[in-house]
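Posting this for the archive.
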Amino acid sequence: MPEASLTPYADSLGIVVHGDEGGSPVLTCNFSANVEGRPGHLHGGAISGLLETAGYALLRRELAKLGRTYRMKPINITVQFLAPGKPKPSYAAARITKLGRRNANISVEAWQDDRSRPIATAILNILMAPEEGSAEA
């Protein structure tokens, strides 16, 4: 999957790669009717989708650097909503806290105006199963 290519789910939410922050892709989601929950607020599912997509984008990037090919499956994803999402662009970036041979632990933050004031955070625990025919299988 190319660097800038995201999932069809991310495309449906309007999530795109915005830039890079310390080696981690920064993703953005503009506010629209597709991601509106209660009037004038970002839907919690859209925030969760942004967080999850940012985590997987970083993991894919790191695995590609290492030449490792895996099928990734979520073990557990925990989201904490800290503030309501307003009708403005939202951003998310991830950090890998552990990258092992079979699983990865990733933390992600989403924010709007101020990077130091997240609107939500997430912890992702991902199982990585080797692709058929890979050296790791």
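The chain has a mean pLDDT of 90. The CA atoms of residues 99 and 105 lie 7 Å apart.
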